Amino acid sequence: MKKHLLSALFFCHYLTFLSSGLVFSEPVDGNAVKVNPETEYIKKGNALHGQYRFNEAEQMYKKALEINPKNDGVYVRLGRVYQGIGQDKKMYEKAKEMHKKALEINPDNDGAYRSLADIYQHLGKAKEAEEMYKKALEINPKNSDAYTGLGCFNLDLGRIKEAEEMCKKALEINPNNARAYMSLGNVYWELGNTKEAEVMYKKMLETNPNSEWSYNTLGKIYNSQGKMKEAEEMCKKALEINPKSENICKTLINIYWSQGKAKEAEEMCKKALEINPKNDEVYVRLGRVYQGIGQDKKMYEKAKEMHKKALEINPNNESAYKNLGNIYRSQGKAKEAEEMYKKALKIDPKNEDACVGLSNIYRCQGKMKEAEEMCKKALEINPDSEWSYNTLGNIYHSQSKMKEAEEMHKKVLEINPENESAYRDLGDVYQALGKAKEAEEMYKKADYYGSSRNSKKRIK
To answer: Quick one: which of 216, 316, 346, 430 could link to 435 by a disulfide (CB 3.0–4.6 Å)?
Structure first.
């Protein structure tokens, strides 16, 4: 959830920017109003900022400051531009400098305090963030955005009740606060209440129809609900608003992946990498797509290339090591697979998949004790793991411990009554016990759920 919140911060800056507009002179009764160059630069900067054209917006705000170096509001807007340009420390330092400059000019600029709070929150400086939010509210107790920021702050710390209270307070002050609806949606999302989260994100779209964040998050919600058509539709709308968002691309990758649309998933991975060629997570996902497209040597080589590319960018990407382990295991390269799984576990000792993969390697090598230990470790990490229970069942079967094997496979079916592998492996257990009728029944169920799954063209 922390990543979910932090990736929302950039959009929050944009929403605050929209909600804190300046008042400009307009012609009255057809009489022309003299153009104010400072105002014109600010208006152009606002328009460019709203279109995510940050570098151009920066230039407009700087021109306005050349005319009037004492405009604290422009310094705040320039700070928010730097918050939007990039997520690196350098840009956040520039943003902080702008907001502090605004406060030198006007110590009562509550917007500057609120923006500083967002920056400190993103940098993990909780104490400073809370102090800035409270300072903003001391100056302006009706600052709806500051209450929303406190809501995000509390949610980030796991204080769900306080987060909900702050977001609702923000909406009492300003029922059109799009960011508050988004943050309250995040609260419900964290609670697993996707229905209420959906309502909040839709409310946000009513107040801000161009919210890429809301469309993208609605896509995630529909994906989790199995509403794939709606999920895809929402994310495509988000991508229309911001074609250069790698986060939206990543959501669409997951949606295509879950539908078994390998070609579309591959294309979206490549689009995400055009936006950010240094995204190791996308290289891993592209590698998994190639693993799923086919079982031939060519595809496995392409998959390995992607995972290795991910490790060039991030040597601590345990998923890349784990996936390389899976590829080597499927190719019968036990030594290489074992090495990859161990590297994954060195980085993350709680990588369940690496534990089970290593367990399978030990089982094939006849190291049953080690295989059993790794499987049990995986179940400590995830007590509801179908794969771990089924693998443990196969380990017991290999040792002729049929009662224990039967128990493990049945445990899988308690978790997922449609698990084809569990039915097939349970059939093998009954076959070994001479229970032909029970074995035949399990094999029929395995065939039924296997054909049902294949008809959906799921990617493995």
So the answer is: 430
Which H or E run contains 448? helix 436-455
The residues, ordered by sequence, that sit 6+ positions from 14 with a Cβ below 8 Å of its Cβ are: 49, 50, 52, 80, 84
| Structure-token pair, residue 315 | 């040597």
pLDDT digits (tens, 9 = 90+) for 72-124: 999 999 999 998 876 667 888 999 999 999 999 999 999 999 999 989 988 88
DSSP 88: S
DSSP-assigned letters across all residues of 89-113: HHHHHHHHHHHHHHHHH-TT-HHHH
User: Which tens digit of pLDDT belongs to each residue from 33-69?
Assistant: 566 899 999 999 999 988 878 899 999 999 999 999 9
Query: Could you tell me the two tokens for 40?
Result: 């014109």
> How far does Cα 318 stand from its chain's mean position?
17
Taking each continuous run of H as one helix and of E as one strand, the counts in the chain are 25, 0
Angstrom distance (rounded) from CA 102 to CA 77: 10
pTM: 0.71
Total number of residues shown for the chain: 460
Tokens for 215, please give them.
Answer: 């469309």
Q: What is the largest CA-CA distance in the chain?
A: 98
CA distances from 80 to 167, 212, 335, 374, 379 (A): 22, 18, 52, 49, 46
Of 12 and 344, the one with more pLDDT: 344
**Which amino acid is located at 154 in the chain?**
N
- CB neighbourhood size of 334 (10 A): 15
Torsion sign (Cα): 218, 220, 199, 1:
negative
Q: What whole-number distance in Å separates Cα of residue 205 and Cα of residue 216?
A: 11
Tokens, residue 115: 């923006």
Q: Are 278 and 313 in contact (CB under 8 A)?
A: yes
Helix (H) or strand (E) holding 117: helix 110-122
Q: For residues 35 and 45, what is the distance between their CA atoms, to the nearest angstrom?
A: 16
